[in-house]
Here is the input.
Amino acid sequence: MTQTTTNIAVQGTEVFIEGQGEETIVCIHGWPDTHRLWDRTVQALQGRYRCVRFTLPGFEGPPRQGQKALTLAELTARLLAIVDAVSPGQPVTLLLHDWGCVFGYELAARHPERVARIVAVDIGDARSPRFLKTLGAKPKLMIVFYQIWLAKCWVLGRFFSARFADYWTRMMARLLRSPTPQVSIHWYMNYPYSMTWLHLGGGLGGLAPFAPHCPTLYVYGQRKPFMFHSQAWVDELNAKPGSRAVGLPTGHWVMVEQPQAFEAELLGWLER
Here is the structure.
């Protein structure tokens, strides 16, 4: 059966709706990606689920002259508006990766009644004090280095040279082994790092504490210099009925590096 795509606009964000089924899955990507990150995953899901995806606000193009960066509250409100528009009658399943996890967790923490299940890829309790305690000096320096690099690239692109900012952003993406085509990677996608380190849009100090309130599948890559979760996060999920944490032999972009294994875990858990 040929699947069709429906496009709607929600507060200026283009939203793509594909597939069919009673359950709606809202996919939120991270850095340095767009809604295209989920191409293969949606192909695997759309026969049984209604899949919704979009490019995060701020990732779709450079800010216009005089345009202010979205605050965390405004971004969360945009995500809520999308969920309400695509599934007004029932809560959704969130499918999250990277910064999509950070912003999706915030949505779930602020509006738990709108989220029935969560599938998180490679970012667990990375913003918690217990996670930070698990990191040695070298991983901490690595995190600070690449994140400040990208935050500075946002400033470079916004106020000085988009060309050079794209160049240095793409260099970091190569170093981090991002599978995203280089031509699709731009400086303005770095705004979450500027929120973190330069207080862009008011920063991320207002993030709500998050613990999954609903069944959660956490899939993470095992072949990385360091993890983005504590062992306690994994143990708690595996001890919670209906939830599961599983590692696959990949780097950070699990759904791209091992698509068949990822889709098998995803579909198996969703059906259970």
Summary: The chain has one domain: 5-131+208-271. The chain has a mean pLDDT of 96. The chain has ten helices and eight strands.
